[in-house]
Description:
mainly alpha, two-stranded parallel sheet, 4 helices, 2 strands, 44% helix
Amino acid sequence: MKCDIDIRPDLFANTVLSGGTTMYPGIADRMHKEITDLYEYYVLSSGVPMPPGIAYRQLKEVVEKTGLTMQKKRLKLKIIAPPERKYAVWIGGSTLASLSTFQQ
């Protein structure tokens, strides 16, 4: 999460999978879960010292035991996994190369 905090909601709302390695069955659901877990860790763990990679359930248990409060902010997350994503990188590169401004 090293990007500007102001553009993070746009990045979360427009995540596009591309490339051959994204063709695994269920990859979009897995990405949704992983990103949601990361978001909940960074947003909800304010002040709770936890190692990276901890599950949200574990974080919630620790917060409840320590008496801290958690305020959940809504995450607008959309993972786009088009069926032609295997060739999306090639199509994008081809389109870029065909632009007149690129050829100069």
